[in-house]
């Protein structure tokens, strides 16, 4: 069996270079690859094109890479919780491609399934459709979207085994399984790493064939982006 286990995040991001396109799982701050992001910041790779549903917050998640000016372009669906992102976008320092959330998900899924492009009605008649081929299906206009092409995909799982099989917990599943399938090299960080064969096959969300590197992280913060509680 191919050995996929690496010692830590620093070893897991080996090979990342300036100018690469990289994916980051997560939704808000839920299920983000915290340790990989920290390692990339420390590594210093710059001019990155980052594909992620959002850009973290100012002092956590992808917000850390924005602080250190390591991101050249963000491809995202929602970016409303990051003041530094807003500042860089409005000043022209950061290139931004905002796309519908369903299109973001499908561009990930298509990449993992080997589908180079697809037509969708989402975004037709808006700035999203500018410069894209339009075709009619059943009397409704659709725009052509291409699958993502990312050198790395960084994902976070609750539990994994040494063969790279992954189980995600609750809503932390979000974009992680799709991105795990889409990267040329997929790096998974997990809270618990067990020997191969110990996970129930019926509970595995991402088969190990899609994962090239896996490591067990420690000390996860698991911040809550917007804490909402009911009155007593």
TrEMBL record:
InterPro entries: 3-oxoacid_CoA-transf_A (IPR012792), CoA_trans_fam_I (IPR004165), CoA_transf_BS (IPR004163), NagB/RpiA_transferase-like (IPR037171). One of its GO terms (molecular function) is CoA-transferase activity. The keyword Transferase applies. PROSITE patterns: COA_TRANSF_1. Keywords: Transferase. The keyword Transferase applies. Coiled coil: none annotated. Belongs to the 3-oxoacid CoA-transferase subunit A family. This is CoA transferase subunit A.
């Amino acid at each position: 069996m191919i050995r996929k286990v690496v010692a830590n995040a620093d070893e897991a991001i080996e090979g990342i270079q300036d100018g690469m396109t990289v994916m980051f799982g997560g939704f808000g701050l839920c299920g983000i690859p915290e340790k990989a992001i920290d390692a990339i910041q420390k590594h210093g790779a710059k001019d990155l094109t980052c594909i992620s549903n959002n850009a973290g917050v100012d002092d956590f998640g992808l917000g850390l890479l924005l602080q250190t000016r390591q991101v050249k372009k963000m491809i995202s669906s929602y970016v409303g919780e990051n003041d530094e992102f807003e500042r860089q976008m409005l000043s022209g320092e950061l290139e931004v491609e905002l796309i519908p959330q369903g299109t973001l998900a499908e561009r990930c899924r298509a990449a993992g399934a080997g589908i180079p492009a697809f037509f969708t009605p989402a975004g037709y008649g808006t700035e999203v459709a500018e410069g894209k081929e339009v075709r009619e299906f059943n009397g409704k206009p659709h725009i052509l979207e291409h699958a993502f092409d990312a050198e790395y995909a960084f994902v976070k799982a609750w539990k994994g085994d040494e063969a790279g099989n992954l189980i995600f917990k609750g809503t932390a599943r979000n974009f992680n399984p799709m991105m795990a399938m889409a990267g040329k090299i997929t790096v998974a960080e997990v809270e618990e790493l067990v020997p191969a064969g110990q996970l129930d096959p019926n509970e595995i969300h991402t088969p190990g064939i899609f994962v090239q590197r896996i490591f067990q992280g420690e000390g996860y913060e698991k911040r809550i982006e917007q804490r909402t509680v009911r009155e007593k």
